[in-house]
């Protein structure tokens, strides 16, 4: 798992760096218009911090997942490569969104890039659980909590993406709110633990 983590860390670092490199600053702007420039850049700042939080959430989740894994197989390596390929798509959809944030296609494409990242992360986790690659001592409750940590944000992204078809600007701020919440450990863990406990109570 160490080599997989090393590769994936580099992918995330590259994707996060691309977010700031995609800023578009006019080169011929007079200095007296700098205040207006920063005001006009609010969509770029919003999408930058939002996507940084998105990538940070996926990175933390990936590390949490691998902290529970004892060993991997060839298929898990390839699933991780698929996941990494989707991670690098996020700066692209972010660049489109910051230019066309009122367009439903831009918002939906952004949401879709997060959904497929989450789906790949879930695929990796499900494969790990199915083939018993977990460390000793990982119980069903921990497995359920990890499951919800992946499913809850992705389910939220699906719903917000649907909203984007009808109200792109509303969807944009809902995405920001969603990933602001999931970056707060106490909030995300409370939600995941509550859902895991509720599902466990039904058994």
Structure description:
The radius of gyration is 19 Å and the shape is elongated. It has helices at residues 2-21, 34-40, 42-66, 74-87, 89-99, 104-130, 140-164, 168-182, 185-201. The mean pLDDT is 86. The chain is mostly helical. It has nine helices and no strands. The two termini are 33 Å apart.
Task: Give a quick set of tags describing it.
single chain, 203 residues, mainly alpha, 9 helices, 79% helix
Low-confidence stretches: none
Instruction: State the secondary-structure class.
Output: mainly alpha
Helix content: over 70%
Nearest-integer average pLDDT:
86
- One letter per element, helices H and strands E, the order comes to HHHHHHHHH
Largest beta-sheet details: none
Strand-residue fraction? Answer: under 5%
How many whole angstroms does the radius of gyration measure? 19 Å
The counted number of beta strands is 0
Shape: elongated
Distance between the termini: 33 Å
Helix count?
9
